[in-house]
Write a structure and sequence with these properties.
171 residues, mainly alpha, NK-Lysin, 60% helix
Length: 171
């Protein structure tokens, strides 16, 4: 009888562990929660209200997918809904990021639908073969602009000028 109970318990644990989120299943959520949690000091980590305030400050500096993630959670002023306590309370309990994202996914499935775009390897790509949209994205990711750029060659020239400044990030 005990053997059967042990086998059933083992199967339940096995099923639960296979249901757990993998980082690639919910990559933006997991990476953003980890990065945010690393910014918190020990005193803040114990108080879920302080965590919420810190998250709202954290969100003001985010862009692209992380900004959208903040929007879904209610970390931005323009957020339509707010499930911020679903992040702050588990963080105050030291719950791991993947488990927090698992809970968030149950509240709003869109959270785990966020995916990072494929990064462009500037050291190996021929800029002339990229679309202007991709060239603009490179500049936007660097928080740079291209004043007076009209043609594709203008964007390529600007990226080539800035490449030495940002090339170390690509290695």
């Amino acid at each position: 009888m005990r053997v059967h109970l042990l086998i059933v318990a083992f199967i339940i644990v096995l099923v639960q562990s296979t249901k757990a989120l993998k980082e690639e299943d919910c990559e933006v959520c997991i990476k953003t929660v980890k990065r945010f949690a690393d910014t918190l000091d020990q005193d803040t980590k114990k108080d879920h209200k302080k965590i919420e305030d810190e998250f709202k400050s954290f969100c003001k500096k985010q862009k692209n997918k992380e900004h959208r993630f903040c929007y879904y959670l209610g970390g931005l002023e323009e957020s339509a809904t707010g499930i911020l306590n679903e992040l702050s309370k588990p963080l105050s309990w030291s719950m791991p990021a993947d488990k927090i994202c698992e809970k968030l996914k149950k509240k709003d499935a869109q959270i785990c639908e966020l995916r990072y775009e494929k990064q462009i390897d500037l050291n190996n790509v021929d800029l002339k073969k990229l679309k202007v949209r991709d060239l603009k994205k490179i500049l936007n990711d660097w928080d740079e602009s291209c004043d007076g750029c009209i043609e594709k060659t203008d964007f390529i020239k600007r990226i080539e000028e800035l490449k030495p400044k940002y090339a170390h990030n690509e290695l």
